[in-house]
Amino acid sequence: MFSGLSALSIEGVEDAGDVIVVRASTRGDVVACPACGTPTGRVHALHERVPADVPVDGRRVLVRLRIRRMRCPVTECTRQTFREQVPGLIERYQRRTVRLGEQVRSIVRELAGRASARLLPAIGIVLGRDTAVRVLLGIPLPDHAVPRVLGIDDFALRRCHDYATVLIDADTGTRIDVLPGRGAEVVAGWLRAHPGVEVVCRDGSAAYAQAVRDALPQAIQVADRWHLWHGLCDAAGKEVAAHSACWAAATGLRQGKLAETTLQRWQQIHALLEAGVGLLDCSRRLGLALNTVKRYARAAAPERIQRVPKYRACMVDPYRNHLRARREQEPGVGATALLGEIRALGYNGSQNLLVRYLNQGRHLDERPHLSPRRASRLLLTRPENLTERQHERLEALATACPEMAALASVVRSFAALLTPCKDNPARLAAWTTAAREADLPHVHSFTRGIEGDINAVTAAITLDHHNGRTEGVNTKTKLLKRQMYGRASIKLLRHRILLG
After folding, report:
1. How far is CA 276 from the centre of its chain?
2. Contact 257/306 with Cβ under 8 angstroms?
3. CB 404 within 8 A of CB 398
4. What crossing angle do the helices spanning 372-380 and 402-417 adopt, rounded to 10°?
5. Largest Cα–Cα distance of the chain, in whole Å?
6. Helix, strand, coil % (nearest 5) of the chain?
7. Which of 180, 210, 252, 425 has its CA 20 to 30 A from that of 345?
8. What is the pLDDT of residues 337-356, one digit of tens each?
9. 257-276 burial by CB neighbour count: b if 16+ within 10 A, else e?
10. In this structure, what DSSP letter does residue 75 have?
11. CA–CA distance from 261 to each of 268, 280, 340 (Å)?
């Protein structure tokens, strides 16, 4: 039970209820002077220390340890008296034994202050939250060598206000450093002070790209493949939404006041553009936001602006056919009468939901609408992961119009590039040419971004390096920040990240 105290002479054990008190003393051996190293057995005085030891059966353990103050026999020694120490058991100025300190450090390393202060009493260790933070900050940080392959990314300390940069070894995932700020000067200064980096994995940040060019012009920059795919997904989603009128024809893109307003606005903007009026002037004349004017100006036809209604599945959907048939037979039938009829069929929803469903005209649809988001998901999902019905929908989606067919081809061919291969640069050039020739404005914007960072993108599709481990560190950092709200600082957060 007290094997960790084997270096002492145990004189007795007392059960004091919630606390177990162990009376012990040192063995009385000859001790070397810490200043001059001369052995001595001369005792100057006796003292008592009461360190805490690891708990037993969930109860605290206190060690009443009687130690000696020794006198150095060398007259000229700077240390005339000194207290003897018990190496491996208790350290100078500590109120916990070494093994208890290791347990406390392992817990506060994971939970920090408040959570540690709530958990430790349950296992018989008393510790305040301020002490827990001090113990955490007292854990020495590991000293890592500068990696050959560096992963770099930023995270928010306070969104839209303060950011920090995390640096890791992209091969092993080891945390290297955390820098306050995310500017090019901050990163370039660290890279100059720590030479030896040969490859830098990053996202599409222009600041990090400039920092690497300034500090390490010979280093290889590797764009993150996940960010490349994510950028194409965003562009594909916008293209799918822009062609709603094409692929939603089978489900019936309803006409109404909104469609008439869209057509009228498109005609007004294009008439002004044909007359030589600029986009900003169009925005001022029509009282529209500049981004709205740009969106209408990019659309070659008013149908490109129309969108499929974004309705989620609801409890009224199973009774759509009954409601449509009743309204066709008796157009004036009220919602209250329809509510009674579908309640008899098993409807358990409210009357307000039914009224809203009828007012939106959803009972007129033959089948539920496929939202642009779900349509995009069909295009962006691996074909082997789709069901037979989803394959049918995807086929109808891809053949709805020439632009959708081109988009499907662009997505499939780019997905094949994300597996690193030495032949990928030539295939990327062919893909860029094909994407530029298609009538896909949002994909063109994505293509221009690739061309602006072509060296890093080429390295991403030919080398095995990636920035996935850095993104994983950022994901864990979000958990650490949530644990530390109210007490967090960049110093404490940096300590926890580097100890992770």
Report:
1. 46
2. no
3. yes
4. 50
5. 117
6. 50, 15, 35
7. 252
8. 999 999 999 999 899 999 98
9. eebeebbebbebbbebeeee
10. T
11. 11, 21, 37
Which amino acid is present at 96?
R
Structural tokens at position 251: 């489900």
Mean pLDDT in order along the chain per 10 residues (500 residues)? 75 86 88 90 91 88 91 90 88 88 91 87 87 90 91 88 91 92 91 93 91 93 94 92 72 58 88 92 91 87 67 83 88 88 91 87 70 86 90 87 91 93 93 92 93 93 92 89 73 88
* Pairing mode of beta strands 149-158, 199-202: parallel
- List C-alpha distances in Å: 194 to 181, 228, 380: 18, 29, 41
Question: Which of helix, strand or coil describes residue 365?
Answer: coil
Q: Among 498, 483, 487, 499, which residue's Cα sits nearest to residue 111? A: 483
Residues in the chain: 500
- CB 231 within 8 Å of CB 442: no
Tokens for 7, please give them: 């270096």
Q: Write the single-letter amino acid at 394.
A: L
Token pair in block for residue 235: 């562009």
Nearest-angstrom CA–CA distance, 53 and 13: 13
Q: Which residue has the tokens 């120490």?
A: 85
Q: Is 323 exposed, middle or buried (0-12, 13-18, 19+ CB in 10 A)?
A: buried
Number of helices followed by number of strands (H, E) in the chain: 21, 13
Closest CA to 124 of 102, 104, 108: 104
Nearest alpha carbon to residue 357 among 382, 394, 322, 400: 322
The Cα 378–Cα 393 span in angstroms is 8
Structure tokens at 289: 């936001």
C-alpha dihedral (478, 484, 490, 491), degrees to nearest 10 = -130
The DSSP letter of residue 243 is T
How deeply is 313 buried, as exposed, middle or buried, from its count of CB atoms within 10 A (0-12, 13-18, 19+)? Answer: exposed
Residue 225 φ/ψ, nearest 5 degrees: -65, -35
Neighbour tally for 207: CB within 10 Å: 18
Quick one: which of 135, 87, 91, 84 has its CA closest to 111? 135
pLDDT at 178: 92
1 near 42, Cβ under 8 Å?
no
Report the first-to-last Cα separation within the chain, whole angstroms.
Answer: 32
**Residues 6+ away with beta carbon under 8 Å from 160:** none
Task: Look at residue 412 in the predicted model and tell me its pLDDT.
Answer: 94
Q: Return the closest-CA partner of residue 371 out of 307, 305, 318, 306.
A: 307
Q: What is the DSSP string of 156-180?
A: EEETTTEEEEEEEETTT--EEEEEE
How far, in Å, CA of 268 to CA of 483, rounded? Answer: 54
Give the pairing type, strands 43-49 and 31-32: unpaired
Place of tokens 């708990």: 55
